[in-house]
Structures are given as C-alpha cells and as structure tokens.
C-alpha cells in the first residue's frame, strides 16, 4: 500500500475533525436551537408585513390607479328602430370599448333596466330630445362615468339633452358612503376576531363554541353599525333599520364562517388569504366606491360572488331602493355561510378520525394588553372581543362621520376682476348665495391668482370677463386634489351659464394618464403608514427579543428602507402607477415608515396589541379623511382641515403629491411633520422605558392551560381513574386473601379439636 493510500485511510486528527461532526452537548444544542429560532422570528418581522402590506397596496394600485369606462351596459330606446340603430353605430364608432349597448322597445323598459341596475344608463331618443336616465343610488361613480361618455355624443348629434335621476341618493348620504362604509366595517368585523382568537384563545374555535359566538357577534356588531349609522349619524332611516340590521348581521356571519374555514386550512396564516379574499379583491369588486366597469375586467366577474360585493349591493338595495334587488345578494351570503360551515365540519371530522385536534394546540399571543396572560378567562375573552368591537366603532364614527355628506366647506377660491371693485362686488354677491361653501379672495391680477392655484394655496380661481377677454376663465390644478377641482369647475361653470357667459376651463396641473383619478398618492401613502404600523405589531409578538430600543431602532431602520423600496417597486415597475422619482420617494418613504413605527411603539409599550386602537385612530381612521387623498379636506368637517397639517398620513400623502406632481415643491414642510412625529415618539419611548421595564420575552402560558388545550388533561384523568381502579382491585384481593387465611386457620383448629376428643 502506498503512503498516499495510507494517508487517505488514516487521515490525521486535524482532518478527521473536519469530516466528523462532534456530538453537541445538551446546552450547546439548546443554544443552537434558540439562535435559529431568533433568526426565524426576526425574518418573520419582515415577511409578514411584506405579505400583508404588499398584497393590499399592489391589489389597490393595480386595480384603481388608471380608470376608464369598460363595457358599461347602456340601453337605447327611440321612436324607431332605425333611429336607435343609427345612434348605436355613432356611439360604438367613438366609444366601442367603453359601452355595451342594447336596444330596447320602449322608454319604460329602459327606465326599468336602470332601476333594476341591469344597465348603468339608458338614452331615449324622441325627436330632437335625448333623455338620459341614470340612478345615482346605484353608484355615483358609474353615473358620472357613463354621463362623461354619453353626453358629448348626444350634443354632437345636435340633440337637446335632458337628464333624469331615477333614484337619487338622500341628502344625508349624498355620495352613497353609508352603504359602502357599513359594508366595509362589517366585513372587517367578520374576519378580524377569528385571527385574534386563533393566536390568543384557540379553544374558542371549536365548533360547539364558535357557532353560537359567531351568531351573537354578528347580531352585536351589526347592531353597532345600526346605532352609529342610524341615531348617531342619521344615514339609516327608521324604515330601513330592521332590514339593514338583518342584512349586516348576515354579512358578518357569512364572512366569519369563511374566516373560520380559512383558519382550518391555513392556520395562523389565515389572516393573509382572509384579507386577500375579503378586502384586496372584495373592495374593488364591490362596485361601491368605484364602478367595476372602470376597473380591470376581472372585477365585474368577481362582483358576482364575493361577500363584499354581495353585502354592499344588498345594503344599497335596502337603503336606496326600498329593498328591491336585495334577494339575490342575500342568497349569495347565506349560501356562502352554509358552504363554509359544512366544509369546517368535514375538515374537523377528517382530523378527528386521524386522531388530530380540530383546533390549534399552541398559544402564540398569550396576552393582548401587553402584560401577563390573565388567569381569569372572562377578562381574556372580554379583551378579545373589545378590541375589534372598539375598532369597528371608531372606524364607523370617524370615517362615516367625515365622508357621509361631502360638500364644499370654506373651499378657497379667488375671484379675479378687471378691478378690485368689480372683484369685490362679485365676491359679495356670491357670498350671499354660497353661504360658507367657499372662502373667496378678491383679486385684480389673473397671473397672481394662477400662481396661488399652482402653489396649492387655492383650490381654483374664477376670472371674470373683461374688455380684453370677453370669456370667463376657470383655473384649477387637478393634481392638487381631483375632487376639489371637479367641484370648482362644476359650480363656476353653472354660475357662468346662469349669467349667459361663455366659460373656458384651463387646467394648470393635469393628472397623468396613468393616474387619471389621482389615487396613487393615497394608496402609496397608505402603504407607508401600514408598513410602519405592522412591523411593531408583528415584532412585539413574533420577536419580543427585538423590543429593547438598542435592538429595535436598527431593525426598524433596515426594515423602513426595505419596505420603502418594495412599495416603490409595486407603485412603479409592477403596476405602472408611478414613473421615476425613485430616490425622493424612497427617502421619504423611509422617514414615513420609521415615524409611524415609532408612534406605534409608544402605544405598544403602554398597552401591547391593544395599541391597535389608538394607532389606527391616529394614522388611518382620522388620517385618511384628513389626507386630502380620497376626498378634499374642503369637503369634510372643519376638524379634518386642521388635522391635515398635523397627522402623519396627510404628511405622507402630500409629500408624495409634491414629489410626483409638483417637482418637490412644498416637500420640506411635510418632511418636517414626519420628522417631528419620529423624534417625539422616540423620546416618549425612552421615557416609558425608564419607568416601565421592557419585556424581551413572551409572557409564559401555564402548563395546565396548554395541557388542557392539547387534551392531556383528559388523559391524566383517565390515568387517575385507572390507578384508582387498580387500587380497588388490589384492596379487594387482599381482603379475599385474608378471608381465605382465616378460613384455613379455622379448619385447622377444628381438626385439632376432633383429634383431641
């Protein structure tokens, strides 16, 4: 054998150590497992928010950043078939992709189709008159969109246009927000509690407990919606209260049953498919805030069976159409609930047959309030129910209260005359008729007014005719707020027409084609805010070792950069909602995410997961109405205009607006607001940490509770019973042996006595 072979067969000790793993001691193995678990939990802090926030923002931006009419159903009636066919050909020539036309026999049939919501509009041609029928109760967005398509064609044909709204919305719910926000709140009430219960009190997921709890919860939360929407805000009238209550209760029950099924399938991750199904797909497909005929074609299809559209359309029928058309949507909800519960029963039966538990046997969130797990189950259950109950109450009160009746309120507009006297006279006249709808500024220089509109200090400007320019002019900046721009154009066009003045609208900051409704700023800002909120919510439970500030600040800094980059990718390359501006948006996004994370940390230090309530109130339920994103702050109660300059959500939205529409003009003031929130929250956290020690480990769950959850308590009782039975048998055996011995002794004595006799 060669020396090389000998070396190969008998390697030196140093080489053997490399190839042979030395067994680890128990202490080393435990340390290795603990390290791996910490790494896994730290990764989860990134993964969970990435999935939830990324899914929602991608879904909303992908669906709603570019809106255009697509196959909107329209009915056409005329005095002759030939005339109807000619009008149809004219419409299809210029708007073939926007409308789906059908010819009907009579104006009555056309009106019935609009009322039944089978078409978005109908046009009846009678001589030189075209009557357009719409129903704003079926959706303001759809009515506005189809009017924008049909009106130019009617006017180009030289026809006199007459518009008739067959089902106008009530004055106290002029945008149909009541049905939309009540439905959204009940969908949240349906899926949210089960995700909390899964991690905190999984014993409640057993069917014998879950079904009565779900029934009671549905009645309670729908009653909350009725209370807020009815007596408090006046959206619901007396005649609609009972049918609305029943409809909302069914919606909560159906979604809760669906979420219960998802927990059986996906376990602790059920919150992700639940949010995806009920909100990410359900909200755009609901046809409530935005017509499904202005979104990608998948959403009209999803509108037919998802629970959010079913509940929203059922509520629309109850509130605005005297219940007509609600039946089919109620059947969808009821059928979905029954199917979900049958599948839950089937899954439970299969697991039981295999000897598995039908519920989770671990507790991932021992306490919701941040302290030790309550020993009294009643307190734990009360907290578990109070969190979603309070969240729904806050959501409904703040958002429905803010957006229930959007109308101009002290909207700043300049009136420009050839002289200050002329401008002031016009202002005085307008004030008498407009009350507090607008705040007018009299000016005599159109250039100055134009500058103020471009710099977003004014919502618009109305330039009166002069000798040099006999036409009135309206200036707006659509990118500074689409809703406000539309109001200014509509109101001052009507004023001009009433005074027989021709009017010209000049748009100073038009929205780009890929964001023609201006929704990108709101959804991207919402993504930043949610990302900051989620990292603390997930980290405080999944990775408590990161809670001390020396660990938390570096983690949040890295996370903020990571999520800011991800959200830019979603808004930019993935959906096409944003073009360029990477570094500005990336840096601002980092600051916004970090600021909200620090704000959430303050409340999390004080109240654990219950921080959900004050944080969501500040950053979302007050922040969204005050953001000037979904709705102009000049169309909401005055308090939101004040909050617009204070809260982090408006600062984030306006910062995005400044970057992508106005080349960064005005950005610095919004960065200052975000920076103040970050620094103030960090300082408060430092103070709290000095007064209250930071727990870097999860609070323990008693062994008895885990044993009961895992079914070991029953086994212990069985063993105890068996041991008792064995004891009884042993005692009986000893008594039998003693009796036998006594009998033998007696026989022996008798025999001895007989012998002696």
Automatic annotation (TrEMBL):
Record region (Disordered): 1-33
TM regions (residue ranges): 42-61, 175-198, 210-229, 235-258, 265-285, 326-347, 381-403, 520-540, 552-570, 582-603, 610-635, 667-688
Coiled coil: none
Protein name: ABC transporter
Source taxon at top rank: Bacteria
UniProt keyword Lipid biosynthesis present: no
Keywords, in A-Z order: Membrane, Transmembrane, Transmembrane helix
UniProt keyword annotation of Transmembrane helix present: yes
């Amino acid at each position: 054998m060669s020396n090389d072979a000998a070396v190969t067969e008998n390697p030196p000790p140093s080489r053997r150590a490399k190839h042979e793993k030395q067994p680890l001691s128990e202490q080393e193995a435990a340390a290795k497992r603990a390290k791996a678990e910490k790494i896994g939990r730290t990764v989860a802090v990134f993964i969970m928010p990435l999935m939830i926030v990324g899914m929602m923002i991608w879904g909303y931006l992908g669906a709603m950043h570019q809106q255009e009419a697509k196959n909107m159903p329209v009915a056409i009636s005329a005095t002759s078939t030939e005339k109807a066919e000619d009008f149809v050909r004219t419409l299809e020539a210029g708007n073939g992709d926007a409308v789906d036309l059908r010819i009907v026999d009579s104006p009555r049939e056309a009106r019935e189709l609009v009322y039944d919501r089978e078409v978005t509009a109908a046009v009846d041609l009678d001589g030189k008159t075209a009557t357009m029928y719409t129903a704003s109760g079926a959706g303001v967005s759809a009515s506005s969109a189809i009017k924008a398509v049909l009106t130019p064609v009617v006017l180009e044909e030289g026809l006199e246009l007459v518009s008739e709204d067959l089902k106008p919305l009530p004055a106290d719910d002029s945008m149909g927000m009541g049905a939309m926000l009540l439905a959204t709140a009940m969908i949240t009430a349906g899926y949210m509690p089960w995700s909390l219960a899964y991690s905190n009190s999984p014993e409640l997921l057993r069917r014998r407990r879950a079904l009565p709890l779900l029934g009671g919860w549905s009645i309670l939360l729908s009653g909350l919606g009725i209370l807020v929407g009815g007596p408090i805000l006046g959206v619901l009238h007396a005649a609609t209260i009972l049918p609305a209550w029943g409809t909302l209760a069914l919606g909560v029950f159906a979604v809760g049953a669906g979420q219960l099924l998802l927990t059986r399938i996906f376990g602790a991750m059920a919150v992700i498919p639940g949010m995806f199904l009920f909100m990410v797909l359900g909200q755009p497909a609901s046809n409530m805030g935005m017509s499904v005929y202005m979104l990608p074609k998948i959403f009209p299809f999803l509108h037919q069976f998802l629970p959010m559209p079913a509940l929203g359309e059922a509520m629309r029928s109850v509130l605005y159409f005297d219940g007509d058309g609600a039946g089919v949507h109620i059947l969808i909800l009821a059928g979905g609930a029954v199917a979900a519960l049958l599948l839950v029963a089937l899954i439970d039966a299969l697991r039981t047959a295999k000897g598995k538990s039908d519920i989770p046997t671990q507790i991932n969130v021992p306490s919701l309030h941040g302290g030790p797990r309550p020993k009294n189950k009643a307190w734990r259950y009360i907290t578990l129910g109070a969190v979603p109950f309070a969240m729904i109450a806050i959501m409904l009160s703040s958002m429905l209260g803010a957006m229930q009746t959007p109308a101009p309120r002290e909207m700043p507009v300049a009136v420009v005359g050839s002289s200050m006297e002329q401008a002031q006279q016009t202002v005085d006249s307008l004030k008498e008729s407009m009350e507090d709808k607008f705040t007018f500024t009299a000016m005599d220089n159109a250039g100055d007014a134009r500058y103020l509109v471009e710099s977003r200090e004014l919502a618009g400007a109305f330039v009166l005719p002069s000798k040099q320019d006999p036409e009135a002019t309206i200036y707006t900046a659509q990118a500074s707020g689409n809703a406000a721009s539309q109001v200014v154009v509509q109101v001052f066009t009507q004023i001009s027409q009433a005074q027989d003045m021709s009017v010209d609208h000049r748009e100073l900051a038009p929205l780009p084609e890929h964001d023609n409704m201006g929704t990108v700023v709101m959804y991207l800002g919402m993504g930043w805010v949610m990302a900051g909120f989620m990292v603390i919510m997930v980290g405080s439970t999944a990775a408590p070792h990161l809670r001390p500030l020396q660990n938390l600040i570096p983690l949040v800094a890295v996370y903020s950069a990571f999520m800011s980059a991800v959200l830019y990718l979603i808004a930019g390359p993935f959906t096409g909602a944003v073009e360029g501006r990477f570094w500005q948006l990336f840096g601002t996004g980092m600051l916004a995410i970090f600021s909200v994370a620090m704000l959430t940390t303050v409340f999390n230090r004080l109240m654990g997961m219950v921080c959900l309530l004050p944080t969501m109130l500040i950053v979302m339920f007050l922040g969204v109405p005050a953001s000037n994103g979904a709705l102009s702050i000049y169309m909401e109660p005055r308090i939101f205009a004040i909050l617009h300059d204070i809260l982090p959500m408006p600062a984030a939205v306006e910062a995005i607006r400044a970057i992508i529409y106005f080349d960064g003009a005005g950005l610095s003031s919004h960065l200052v607001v975000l920076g103040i929130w970050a620094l103030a929250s960090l300082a408060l956290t430092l103070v709290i940490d000095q007064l209250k020690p930071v727990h870097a480990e999860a609070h323990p769950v008693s062994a008895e509770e885990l044993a009961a959850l895992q079914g070991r308590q029953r086994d212990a009782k069985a063993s105890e019973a068996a041991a008792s039975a064995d004891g009884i048998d042993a005692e009986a055996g000893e008594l039998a042996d003693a009796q036998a011995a006594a009998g033998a002794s007696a026989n022996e004595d008798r025999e001895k006595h007989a012998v002696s006799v």
